[in-house]
Amino acid sequence: MNSSSSENSLLSWGLLTLLTLIWGSSFILIKRGLEVFTPGEVGAYRMVAAASLLLPLSIPRIKNLNKTQIKNLLISGMLGSFIPAFLFPMAQTQLSSSLTGVLNALTPLFVVVVGALFFDAKITRRNLLGLIIAFAGVIVLVAYKEGGGWSSLSGINSYALFVIAACICYSFNLYVIKTRFTKLTSIEISSISLLMILPVALMYLFAGTQFSYKLVSHPNALEALGYVTLLGMVGTGTALILFNIMVKRSGPFFASLVTYTIPIVAILWGVLDGEVLLLGHYFGIAAVILGVWVGNRKKTG
């Protein structure tokens, strides 16, 4: 291996590690934000923070777009950022941050399902096996309860559906990007799609919530605001740029490895924060990660 390829490999692994830490920490930051703000306030302010950070990249580029591109970027912004930003805090009102991070790893499998159902993509036996294993893990995660017993159907934690809905949004957004943005760069897609949803986030945040009142009345508001600012600017804005760089340098398959490493960081943060994971939860976590790996690994030979 020559020095150039060695440096590229080192950079790729460095980006993977950095993104793992950033995205794996997002769930504990959401948890901290929810100590003061509602799920809607956390989601909206996260988008405001992320879009504001990328304004120097988005504003100079928007003048070069036509109306169709702007409309598609709005759709991408809603599916890839805005809606999931609300769904994850809603889920975490009843799910631990660690389990939410694990469930988020289902996104690649939903990419396969959405592609097969709506975009004429093929679903292989390997994909199907991965789905079965991963969903078995999901059932364990949402139905296993303290004491080693199992919840009845009515007792299953339905808040996991919010995470699944977010994964589905991410999946549709991938195909929107793939089919409608052949002439735009990754930086343009990331920054301008966030710019498109900025007015919606601002209107909701200041006209539809008590966000402003909490900032001046709640004793822990500034601390929680700092966590959500970090979540938006680093966990969304900066991470999108880093991920796009990694995709270009290392390819989509290497970039997809972050799916398997994010839950590790999310679980570690959760345990450090006092969240209790039972033995059955670890089996469920292992099944989800195994299912995602089986369903997305490349065929060799």
From TrEMBL:
Membrane topology: Multi-pass membrane protein
Domain EamA: 16-142, 159-294
InterPro entries assigned: AA-Vitamin_Transporters, EamA_dom, EmrE-like
Segments traversing the membrane: 12-30, 72-90, 102-121, 128-144, 156-177, 189-207, 227-246, 253-272, 278-295
Alphabetic keyword roster: Membrane, Transmembrane, Transmembrane helix
Localization of this protein: Membrane
Family as reported in the entry's similarity comment: Belongs to the EamA transporter family.
The protein's name: DMT family transporter
Organism: Algoriphagus confluentis
